[in-house]
Specification:
Blueprint lengths: L1 E8 L4 E7 L3 H10 L2 E9 L5 H19 L6 H16 L4 H11 L2 H15 L4 H5 L3 H18 L2 H58 L5 H15 L1 H20 L1 H12 L4 H22 L4 H11 L3 H15 L4 H4 L7 H13 L2 H54 L1
Antiparallel strand pairs: 1-2, 1-3
Helix pairs in contact: 3-4, 3-8, 4-5, 7-8, 8-9, 8-12, 8-17, 9-17, 10-11, 12-13, 12-17, 13-14, 16-17
Length: 410
């Protein structure tokens, strides 16, 4: 793909031209590596004439921008936004100059947010004050870090830390989704195979035995009973599924019910370990990132508690922040049932040595590696379990079939 661009050098000189890249973000990264900060970039069709090409591109770009504006901002867009903003600050650009450049290379809802941020900052608001209007988009963690960084005058490294934290979180989420996709697909396939056999295969055996007047073996009678129930009373199955799902959703929507379900999930082999490791990773990386940016321990723990999906662990973290606020030591406050002992011990060490940030960073790396190990274990355990499950169902049907054939032959 080919892109036309306009930009500025670090000395303020104008630059324009064309560059080849796989996508728009790659084009921007290439130009920035050459010391050019892009103010506008757009894809060009090589075969089109310049006038028709520009007019068509602008029309399509505007329509696409309006369509994308209704979609939520993607995580990779937010990571790119914070990282590039930090790099521009490092090069000496002001907030408004950096936002103007980013508005020219972004699309959809994020572009409109950047334009609005620029307008608010130009009218006298600080960067953190402007961001507060989009807390649901950029998360409380980013807002608190940026607010503290503005006070201390270290906004550029704080933005890079925000991007790094979001990147780690996105990578872990990707690993978890990838791990859980295979078991879910296998389960759906198993249900599909079972239903197919019960609806299309077993009834044929039932008709055959009915015509012969012979009584099938007990195994075939069991399958015929299940098949008859599914084909004649399928609505009971649907109702049972709906009632079960509704009960789970209702229970999960209640504060106490969600905590109860989350506690049960923590007790599931492998799955519970993965959920716990993911939460511990968020605690450690969150503390390291927030404390390094100047956020207090109490506020940091409250922010992290809001980020953790498992409410049993999140409640422990929030309780720890309240105990610290009442004057308790951080190490003692972390002694909770769903906060792992390693975190408790490392918190004690960090508090005594005054190196909490580095210790939490080391713990975060440990839990990232642990998540990868658990992910591999789940993937390794799922494949043979899937073979046994599907093979067991199909094998039992074949066993019943051949036993029935032998009964007829005898």
């Amino acid at each position: 793909m080919r892109f036309q661009y306009q930009g500025l050098t670090s000395t303020g000189d104008d630059r324009k031209g064309a560059i080849n890249a796989s996508d728009q973000n790659k084009a921007v990264e290439k130009l920035q590596s050459r010391g050019i900060y892009v103010t506008s970039v757009r894809e060009v069709a090589i075969s089109a004439t310049p006038g028709a090409r520009n007019e068509a591109f602008e029309s399509i770009s505007e329509a696409l921008d309006q369509a994308l504006a209704i979609l939520p901002v993607k995580t990779n867009q937010k990571i790119f936004f914070f990282r590039q903003l930090g790099l521009m600050f490092r090069s000496g650009l002001s907030v408004t100059e950096a936002l103007t450049i980013l508005a020219g290379i972004q699309r959809g809802r994020l572009r409109r947010i950047i334009i609005d941020l620029n307008d608010k900052i130009s009218s006298g608001q600080s960067f953190s004050q402007a961001l507060e209007n989009y807390e649901s988009t950029f998360t409380p963690l980013a807002l608190h870090m940026i607010r503290s960084a503005e006070t201390s005058g270290e906004l550029e490294p704080a933005l890079i830390r925000v991007a790094n934290f979001m990147e780690r979180k996105a990578e872990i989420k990707k690993q978890l989704i990838s791990t859980m996709t295979y078991p879910i697909v296998v389960l759906l396939m198993t249900i599909g195979v079972f239903v197919f056999l019960m609806i299309f295969v077993i009834p044929k055996f039932a008709d055959f035995f009915q015509r012969t007047g012979r009584t099938p073996p007990s195994e075939m009678l069991q399958l015929m009973a299940i098949s008859n129930f599914i084909t004649t009373s399928w609505y009971y199955v649907i109702i049972a599924i709906i009632v079960t799902i509704s009960a789970i959703v209702y229970t999960y929507s209640r504060p106490r019910g969600r905590i109860y379900i989350d506690i049960l999930l923590l007790k599931v082999p492998l799955i519970g370990s993965m959920i716990s490791a993911n939460a511990m990773s968020q605690i450690t990386w969150g503390l390291a990132t927030l404390l390094q940016s100047g956020v207090s321990v109490v506020h940091a723990l409250k922010i992290i508690g809001d980020l953790i999906n498992n409410k049993a662990i999140a409640e422990n973290v929030v309780d720890a922040s309240e105990e610290i606020l009442r004057g308790s030591d951080m190490g003692k406050s972390f002694q909770k049932p769903y906060i792992e002992e390693l975190i408790q011990q490392m918190t004690l060490v960090g508090e005594r040595t005054g190196s909490m940030v580095s210790i939490m960073r080391d713990a975060g790396e440990f839990y990232e590696e642990r998540i990868r190990t658990i992910t591999k274990a789940i993937a390794s355990a799922t494949e043979p379990a899937a073979i046994l499950l599907i093979g067991g169902i199909v094998g039992y049907v074949y066993y019943a079939f051949f036993k029935s054939m032998f009964a007829l032959a005898g």
